[in-house]
Write a structure and sequence with these properties.
nicotinate phosphoribosyltransferase; alpha/beta; 36% helix; six-stranded parallel sheet; TIM Barrel; 2 domains; seven-stranded antiparallel sheet
Length: 390
């Protein structure tokens, strides 16, 4: 039996939304800091910046999670500027907060979590996107993460321009319909000798607007199962999916090419071939010429978070920073050749550069709008502009 500590919404160890917004989803030392400053009657006006690398490194990552960060800071006596979500960055701050320190001191843990995890997932998804730019790529990795963050994973995948995702509840959150075919379990429930019944039952039970895609590697040779499914479903078959365990599939590209060939030679040119199972950007580059679509799982959902830190860089108008960090409020610029520059906000940027910071909160009021489709478009345009390859 799960011990009821009063600290979770339910039995699944989910920190409640109220704890995040109230600043209780924090590291203990921020609580101690707030208590100490309050007792000392000390609440300076500060500038804080969220940064991964101090100077541009040429190693770009994709910014995501900004909308959550803004929601966390809304209603507080602060001004916030940020790079727009879907922007590629390689150094300098991505978000800046100005205001009394106690307005946001206890929010640092959650704020960094919003930005760090989503940006890591989005960056991995963008690597997959640019590896197969003209092929459907879906996010299939929700099974690798705690279900409470599946919405973040799928939203971050869409931020990078992926075409869809598999998680139903995440779709409810995002107002998007989840995608998917069938699992091996469905075929196994019918049995080895009744595979055709499994495919036919799936086609009958699936809404007409949903493509009928048969999983064709449960028991036998991929080509044999694919042709069996094609003969069974005929014109009702929209596609086949191969998800063979890596220890059993040999050379995946050769198998996929053989499947495509045997479908075409029998007149099934309109049947698409989808591949999934342990795929990464390298395998997508190898397979994109023989597949109509991919399902990418752990490479996206299991991505390492970006190592963001939040640092005070000015206190009561004076530059201030800990050792190894750059003091003073900064701006980030992009020049026409796609490179980034970091400079003091009080000084002019390079002549041919645009400032990437935009206002998102002013005195607690949210002044920016976040549109997921526009964010994805920005990410893809940015990837081309800076030559992102992952």
């Amino acid at each position: 039996m799960t011990e009821d500590t009063g600290e979770t919404d339910d039995a699944f160890d989910v920190v409640p939304t109220s704890a995040i917004s109230e600043g209780r989803a924090t590291d203990a030392y921020f609580q101690r800091t707030r208590e100490t400053l309050t007792a000392a009657d000390r609440n300076p006006h500060v500038v804080a910046e969220v940064t991964a690398d101090q100077f541009p490194s040429g190693e770009f990552e994709l910014l995501a999670g900004v909308a959550n960060a803004v929601e966390l800071l809304a209603g507080r006596a602060v001004d916030v500027d940020a790079l727009p979500p879907g922007t590629l960055f390689d150094g300098g701050p991505v978000l800046r907060i100005e205001g009394p320190y106690l307005e946001f001191a206890a929010l640092e843990t959650s704020l960094l979590g919003f930005l760090s995890h989503a940006s890591g997932v989005a960056t991995a998804a963008l690597e997959c996107r640019v590896a197969a730019p003209d092929t459907t790529v879906l996010s299939f990795g929700a099974r690798h993460v705690h279900p409470a963050i599946a919405g973040m994973v799928e939203k971050s995948a869409l931020t990078a321009g992926l075409d869809g995702f598999s998680h139903v509840a995440a779709g409810d959150l995002l107002g998007r319909e989840a995608s998917g075919t069938m699992p091996h379990a469905l075929v196994i429930c019918f049995g080895r000798e009744r595979r055709a019944e499994a495919w036919a039952a799936f086609a009958d039970a699936t809404p007409s607007e949903t493509p009928t895609v048969a999983l064709c590697d449960t028991y036998g040779d991929e080509v044999e199962e694919v042709l069996h499914a094609a003969e069974t479903l005929g014109d009702d078959l929209d596609g086949v999916r191969l998800d063979t365990t890596s220890s059993r599939r040999g050379e995946f590209e050769t198998i996929a090419r053989e499947v495509r060939w045997e479908l075409d030679v029998r007149g099934y040119e309109d049947v698409d071939v989808f591949l999934s199972g342990g795929l990464d950007p390298a395998s997508l580059r190898d397979l994109r010429g023989v597949a109509d679509g991919f399902g990418v799982g752990g490479y996206v959902s299991n991505a390492d978070p970006v190592d963001f830190a939040l640092d005070l860089v000015a206190v009561d108008g004076d530059p201030a920073a800990k050792r190894g960090k750059l003091s003073g409020a900064k701006s980030v610029y992009r020049t026409a050749d796609g490179t980034h520059h970091v400079g003091l906000r009080s000084r002019s940027g390079p002549a041919d550069a645009e400032s990437l910071f935009e206002p998102v909160v002013r005195d607690g009021e949210v002044v920016a709008e976040f549109d997921l489709d526009q964010t994805a478009q920005r990410a893809l345009a940015d990837a081309e502009r800076v030559g992102f390859r992952g």
